[in-house]
Design brief:
By secondary structure, the protein is an all-alpha fold. It has 7 helices and no strands.
Length: 161
């Protein structure tokens, strides 16, 4: 599968990407723990089959100190023991918030209650915005067949302005 379109080489897409990066920076600077941000981003990207984003979030998480064991188990987080209760709540929200078509109620009351048990208002706001943002990023990359494998950790550091 070859890339269909170079988003970075188009003026409209590049301008959009700059604003997208600024939006991501708001979440990155939020009180939501970095580990939760990367685990959620990785899980959403796995669900959506976005190779570019799985590559990016795996490498960024590893660069931030995430272990190979935890990264390997994100796809099977329910059947593993390496995630905290807070991370499990965030991963459940990520899955339910990504698989909206699978349940008419979207995020369940049970999942929402678990998230609220572990995160304050600013962290919840960041978590909800992160799930929406990563889903949008996945769609951009999947639509144009942007493939994973070439990302280097820190590649976009300083891209937002």
């Amino acid at each position: 599968m070859e890339p269909r379109f170079d988003l970075s080489g188009n003026g409209i897409a590049a301008a959009f990407a700059q604003r997208f990066a600024n939006t991501a920076l708001v979440i990155h600077r939020s009180p939501l723990p970095r580990s939760a941000q990367e685990l959620v981003s990785l899980r959403v990207s796995q669900i959506n089959g976005c190779g570019w984003c799985v590559d990016l979030h795996t490498k960024e998480a590893a660069a931030a100190g995430e272990t190979a064991v935890r990264l390997s188990l994100v796809a099977a987080w329910r059947e593993s023991t390496v995630f905290t209760d807070a991370e499990r709540a965030a991963l459940a929200l990520a899955e339910e918030g990504t698989r909206l078509a699978d349940a008419h109620d979207g995020v369940s009351d049970e999942t929402w209650a678990r998230v609220r048990e572990h995160y304050g208002d600013d962290e919840v706001a960041a978590l909800v915005c992160l799930v929406a943002l990563v889903n949008a990023a996945n769609r951009l990359a999947v639509i144009v067949h942007q493939r994973g494998g070439s990302y280097e950790a820190g590649m976009f550091t300083g891209a937002a302005g």
